Amino acid sequence: MPERTTGLRAIHVRPGHPDFLDLPWGMPLAAWPGATERILELPRGLSRHEVQFVDYGDGALYAVKELPAGLAEKEYGLLLEMQARRLPTVEAAGHVAAGDCSYLVTRYLDASHPYRVLFLNKGLERYRVRLLDAMAGLLVRLHLAGAYWGDCSLSNVLFRRDAGQLGAYLVDAETSELHDRLSDGQRRLDLMIMEENVGGDLLDISIAVPLPEGLRPETFGADVRRRYESLWHEVNREEVLRPDERWRIQARIKALHALGFSVQEIRFVATGDGDKLVMRPIVTDRDYHRHRLHDLTGLVAEDRQAELMLNEIRELRARMAKAHKREVPQSAAAFRWLTETWDPAQQALAPLVKTDAEAAEIYCQVLEHKWFMSEKAGKDVGLDAALKDYLKRFKPRRRKQG
């Protein structure tokens, strides 16, 4: 890209973010590493555009992407609308016009990894095969909300660990479109692009490291598509009910909740066959558990993490009900869990937690550790014992003095 002779022309920043006025907007983005001390080198996926990461302290990291004039504002608007539709994307912080280019500024997603890190980091092997479900789930969520991606690839996604699973977040919305509803043709086109792109991404990384069993570049895209189709069918399928089968309504809602989907409403349509009705659930997003946990405790977690913590709250509620010989409100159990279980555990785990986003994941690792210890002992060893053993195994060692 040619050097520019004019500098900053306009800057738009959302409240709660830095003004970014101290960045060298009059220079090409590729020259920024020598022009500002805010540049931070971070792992990244492949990108057709120049990207730099800037550090504003206290964990406030931002990605700056250089685009042709006018495109940054367009992508900024798309990301804002996606956030309004509660889709898993990076947070749009602002857009800038400088010289003959535009720049998109997004908040770096804490505790996230590009797909290349999942393969190059030896400590993340268990998460590699989770890419299939993560990509399928992300596409289903986008399509349910009327979002056509247009450039689905592993390089355009960031991944967060979620209690042994992976959560996927869209990073690049440059080619995206938002509609009230996608046609089957738009969904098929998105899936076709996905199959081609993710296969190439996996082939690229296979040159550097061996792939785990079950992940092959030539079939990866088709495998993601099969999982997508299965999940799409489950979320959108209709059921025919008779008047005496009301129990199936709650059963269907619970099944969708188990998949992490929030159900906005249930619609019933007459079939024309006596008293039978067709039940159509209206699904919104795949964050049911995290929304419920936040409502009860104020904690922010990924959906699978939240599900495990909600299970703990339910178990505590059952024990409280048995002890008091009466029903106990879930809010009361949640408060007790928060003060007597979560808070003490976080104090003990503080040496291992680098960012707020890691707190829930490490806690869930302790729960998994408790499960393994209990299975070996043939009884429930309890959280305290699991916590002590986990810290003994993983607590950072102090360096010897002198």
Describe the structure.
This protein has 402 residues and is an alpha+beta fold. The chain has four domains: 8-107, Phosphorylase Kinase, domain 1 (2-Layer Sandwich), CATH 3.30.200; 112-235, Orthogonal Bundle (Transferase(Phosphotransferase), domain 1), CATH 1.10.510.10; 237-283; 302-394, no CATH class. The chain contains eleven helices and 13 strands. The protein has helices at 71-84, 115-120, 131-144, 184-206, 217-236, 247-258, 288-297, 303-324, 330-349, 356-377, 383-394, and strands spanning 8-13, 51-55, 61-68, 91-98, 101-107, 112-114, 147-148, 157-162, 165-170, 177-178, 239-241, 263-270, 277-283. A hairpin with a 2-residue loop joins strand 8 and strand 9 (165-170). Helix 3 (131-144) packs across helix 5 (217-236) and helix 4 (184-206) packs antiparallel against helix 5. The longest helix has 23 residues, at 184-206. It is globular, with a radius of gyration of 24 Å. The termini are far apart. Residues 1-5 and 398-402 have low confidence and may be disordered. Residues 230-393 form the DUF4032 domain. This is LPS kinase. One of its GO terms (molecular function) is kinase activity.
Order of helices and strands: EEEHEEEHHEEEEHHEHEEHHHHH
Can you list the strand order of the major beta sheet? 1-4-5-3-2
| Biggest beta sheet summary | 5 strands, antiparallel
- Average pLDDT, all residues: 86
* Low-pLDDT regions: 1-5, 398-402
Approximate strand percentage: 15-25%
Q: What is the top-level CATH class of the largest domain? A: Mainly Alpha
Number of helices: 11
The CATH homologous superfamily name of the largest domain equals: Transferase(Phosphotransferase) domain 1
Q: Compute the gyration radius: what is it? A: 24 Å
Derived from helix and strand composition plus strand pairing, the structural class reads alpha+beta
